[in-house]
Write a structure and sequence with these properties.
By secondary structure, the chain is of the alpha/beta class. The protein has 2 domains: about 210 residues, Uncharacterised protein PF07075, DUF1343 (Rossmann fold), CATH 3.40.50; about 120 residues, Aspartate Aminotransferase, domain 1, CATH 3.90.1150. The protein has 10 helices and 10 strands. It has a 7-stranded mixed sheet, with helices on both faces. The radius of gyration is 21 Å and the shape is globular. It starts with 7 loop residues before the first helix and ends in a 6-residue tail after the last helix.
Length: about 375
């Protein structure tokens, strides 16, 4: 039995929210109501909506990771669209400063690497500087709200894939994250969050009666979002993280990877089975090149620690493959450079980071709404 959940966007219609003055909307293809009607269409009927703002992947979610999106007019709504991702954000920032209210409605995935949350906090800073009201329409954390895990970001490695001292998996909704950052990072904008109805912290996304719309091209399923917590770190190496396949982040591999040996050294992992596989990416790393790979099959989400599995995979591959290469971007993803030290112990590292994350989660409860 699915749990009935209403997102913040649904409550606009049900509760008759009123938005003042000239309004802008940060959204993408995930900004929909329960009946899949676009938030853009709904807001056009209830407020003076004058502009749309797109995060990474664009307002319609059709751009690949890192692809720059320029200013254009949305064909369906006839509204101007400004990009908040990449180098050309000046026009977007200037437009936000001219608004009375900025609304945010995007489905996040609950991972520190995911850039939508930093699009939000950057916009909150612009709002604070210009006296613009910011309203977040809350949505579920697909990974639930109970378990946080992963390294706490070292400020030396702050970037657009990890800006604040949070764990990789925060267990916060996007609204809770906004409230926490508004206070802890002293953004101090005029922020309101329209909460969900019916969501509880022990719910994964597919425990709800909501439709999961892939938040970006390479997060097609809820299971992908889980494994993304652990395997995204391979973006900072010469291991393919499965982009260009139908199972991104659920498979990793390379032409030179000894998959069987790695799996043997991994041993049994709680909540997930590792299987030898092969794939040939159609784009991204190793495009059109046959790769030996490892696929992660989740058997129990409550037991599965994607962060622990990802760190152990990294450590084993690093110790057993001379072909393995690391790029500085790795540290932006992991939030630390400890994992490449000669005396690195994956088990000890995971234990220490788990203790830190438990402390962080207890601290973050101040901003829990559910």
């Amino acid at each position: 039995m699915k749990n009935k959940v209403l997102c913040g966007a649904d409550r606009i219609v049900r509760d008759g929210y009123v938005f003042n003055g000239r309004c802008g909307l940060i959204t993408n293809h995930t900004g929909v109501l329960k009946d899949l009607a676009s938030t853009v269409d709904i807001l056009k009927d209830v407020c003076n909506l004058v502009a749309l703002f797109g995060p990474e992947h664009g307002v319609r979610g059709d751009k690949q990771a890192g692809e720059n999106v320029s200013y254009y007019t949305d064909q369906k709504s006839a509204l101007p669209v400004y990009s908040l991702y990449g180098e050309n954000t000046f026009e977007a920032e200037r437009k936000i400063s001219s608004l009375d209210t900025l609304i945010f409605d995007i489905q996040d995935v609950g991972a520190r690497f995911y850039t939508y949350q930093y699009t939000l906090t950057d916009s909150m800073k612009i709002c604070a500087e210009n006296g613009v009201k910011c309203i977040v329409l809350d949505r579920p954390n697909p990974l639930g709200g109970m378990r946080a895990e992963g390294t706490i970001l070292d400020s030396r490695f702050s970037s657009f894939v990890g800006r604040f001292p949070t764990p990789i998996r925060s267990a916060l909704t996007i609204g809770e994250f906004a409230m926490m950052m508004n206070e802890t990072e002293r953004i101090s904008c005029d922020l309101s969050v329209i909460p969900m109805d019916g969501w509880k912290r022990d719910m994964y996304f597919d425990d709800t009666d909501l439709v999961f719309i892939q938040p970006s091209p390479n997060i097609p399923t809820v299971d992908t979002a889980f494994s993304y917590i652990g395997t995204c770190i391979f973006e900072g190496t010469n291991i393919s993280e499965g982009r260009g396949t139908t199972k991104p982040f659920e498979m990793i591999g390379a032409p030179w990877l000894d998959s069987g040996r790695v799996i043997d050294l991994m041993g049994n992992c709680d909540g997930v089975i590792l299987r030898e596989c092969s794939f040939t990416p159609t784009f991204s790393d190793y495009k059109d090149i046959f790769c030996h790979g490892i696929q992660l099959h989740i058997t129990d989400r409550n037991l599965y620690s994607p962060f622990s599995v990802g760190i152990k995979l990294f450590d084993i591959i690093n110790r057993t493959h001379k072909e393995f290469e690391i790029e500085p971007f790795l540290f932006n993803l992991t939030g630390t450079d400890e994992i490449i030290k000669p005396d690195f112990s994956a088990e000890d590292f995971i234990k220490r980071e788990t203790e830190k994350t438990i402390q962080w989660r207890n601290f973050s409860k101040k901003w829990h709404m559910y």
